[in-house]
Amino acid sequence: MQLSGAEIVVRCLQEEGVDHVFGYPGGAVLFLYDELFKQDKVKHVLVRHEQAAVHAADAYARSTDKVGVALVTSGPGVTNAITGIATAYMDSIPLVILTGQVPTYAIGEDAFQECDTVGITRPCVKHNFLVKDVSDLALTIKKAFYIAATGRPGPVVVDIPKDITAHKAEFAYPKSIAMRSYNPVVKGHAGQIKKAIKLLLEAKRPMIYTGGGVILGDASAELAQLVRLLDFPCTNTLMGLGGFPATDRHFLGMLGMHGTYEANMAMQHCDVLLAVGARFDDRVIGNPKHFFEQPRKIVHIDIDPASISKRVKVDVPVVGNVREVLKELIRQIEAARGGPDKEALKAWWTQIEVWRGRDCLKYDRTSAIIKPQFVIEKLYEVTKGDAFVTSDVGQHQMWAAQFYKFDKPRRWINSGGLGTMGVGLPYAMGVQMAHPKATVACVTGEASVQMCIQELSTCKQYRLPVKLVNLNNRYMGMVRQWQEFFHGNRYSESYMDALPDFVKLAEAYGHVGMRIEKPADVEPALKEAFSRKKDLVFLDFITDQTENVFPMVPGGKGLSEMILV
Amino acid sequence: MRHIISVLLENEAGALSRVAGLFSARGYNIESLTVAPTEDETLSRMTIVTSGSDDIIEQINKQLNKLVDVVKVVDLSEGGHIERELMLVKVRAVGKDREEMKRMADIFRGRIIDVTDKDYTIELTGPGSKLDAFLKAIDQVAILETVRTGASGIGRGDRILKV
Prior knowledge:
The complex is a heterodimer of chains A (565) and B (163).
Chain A: E1 2-4, H1 5-15, E2 20-23, H2 30-37, E3 43-46, H3 50-63, E4 68-72, H4 76-90, E5 95-101, H5 117-121, E6 127-130, H6 137-149, E7 155-161, H7 162-166, E8 168-170, H8 190-202, E9 206-210, H9 212-216, H10 220-230, E10 234-236, E11 251-254, H11 261-269, E12 272-276, H12 282-285, H13 288-291, E13 297-302, E14 316-319, H14 322-335, H15 342-356, H16 372-382, E15 388-391, H17 395-403, E16 412-413, H18 424-434, E17 440-445, H19 456-461, E18 467-472, H20 477-486, H21 502-508, E19 512-516, H22 519-531, E20 537-542
Chain B: E1 2-10, H1 15-25, E2 32-37, E3 43-51, H2 54-66, E4 70-75, E5 81-92, H3 96-107, E6 111-115, E7 119-126, H4 128-137, E8 143-148, E9 152-155
Antiparallel strand pairs in B: 1-3, 1-4, 2-3, 5-7, 5-8, 5-9, 6-7
């Protein structure tokens, strides 16, 4: 049967099992919206700005194992979406972004709302397509979903000119797909796995360091099994939190610039390091030169060969799907005669406990002003550690990462790579859409939240009962902290003047607003907010303006050169 | 160190810009880049001449392989290979220079492919160093215009790059 391009797109989405599309209509996508209108399998979520559409689709993907889908119009629709696409790209999130384009005959003529979408998105997508013939449409969309979800995941843009959505073609959705130029590796190399096991079993001071790859590869059960089997310490990157249960005694907390003392010290002083789905980035290992002053052997498991030996030379690279490789490691270690060196391990754990005893996350609990750390601790208690927590970017993000103990993967949703302020609220929307019954908290700050504040309207329209935990210190806190440490206390443009009354603002959008100014009111306020199952509650916590995030590895310094409280 | 890398990629619109974009985004050098369809018209073959430390070259190879349109990548400099470049040079050819230019072209096994009463256009192929040597050997002020294709390369013997 002949279908129009627009019908084909919607049928493809249905075939892919897409239940939510986040988007915003416009001239170039009118035929597509017309087809969405005529069916009810694919639900469209109307955002207030295209950036939020991509962020919401991104969080939808992060909190499930599905591909997120966004739909925007040509020109400004695309340029508004770029921040969302780049954010997803940096964190390897599987997305398909459908973009409208001016009709094929108008491309290149500087038509109304025209932009070179394929050109403008190329550096921040895994791949992109411009569909020039309606008969290629179904195969292109199939490829887009396949590329987005396999290998190292990432966003894929499909640019569809308006006339293509009107043209007709025979529709048949391809069942499977093979591409000669794209064949992601799955299984790890057997010889490399053998070498890895030898190193791990000979280790005197081992360390396991895992990142977002464990979450995206759904390998957290295997990771927990391996850590407990070996009795090795484990740390997670910001992107990897929840990949290993934070309440397990083997967990040393997050590592990196604002990582714990014990995690960073163990990372620096280990003799064998197993890196799983992590990429040794600058916020994680600090100065690579300093990192190498301590000799150690490194085993690196990653699905992306280009992530291996990019910043740090490794001894045993294992390219493959992390879950497959971890399974194989466990199988072979269990079958091996003799386990790790128990004596050496005992001494290593003793050392780690000394570091842990430093209690690097301590803060003033007697303060008469609300400490931001205290709010996160109470949030953890009130939500029983079982909420989905999204965050924006800055100090509040680090405190959430340090003080909310994530025991499950896909519960901690934040922008790690690009560090995009403004993601928190649209992320919370995407998560709540994917998990309608779940408790969703957005930890944010008064600066970040204003970057996508218009989405309070979307939340009203779809009755999304997310809880915003606004740590309001009247500063771009992380900027202020760096200015205090490195720029002689000159707080250049980091003070947030003329703030709105967030309580009234929330109310103006039809939500509930609460302002909390005393430490004693923190817990009751959180309890009340989370008991309102149907309401979005904006909790505006007036926090200590001078609080800093510790520990801190200053830029250019080594992991063991932390500034401590 | 200088490397010459051959890439087989899908012959699709935008494939070239993906490679060029990769090099500029990651700050890699491109000394030259040539591309044309192969005998299988669904495939293009690209030759990139670049330079960098071993670590950078390793990353370049990996990043090229990561591009969805790229089918195969071979670093030709890892083994025996031949490279050739084509150059067209327009030189002033009047008076005693006219005979001299003809002689120099012959010595370098070049061919004069266009003649006017004032100038010659000489076609020369060879490794880049030979083309450089020719330009050095002739009278500098006589050079009116040059155009070079950049290097194309192929492995020696049974080193074959094919899908």
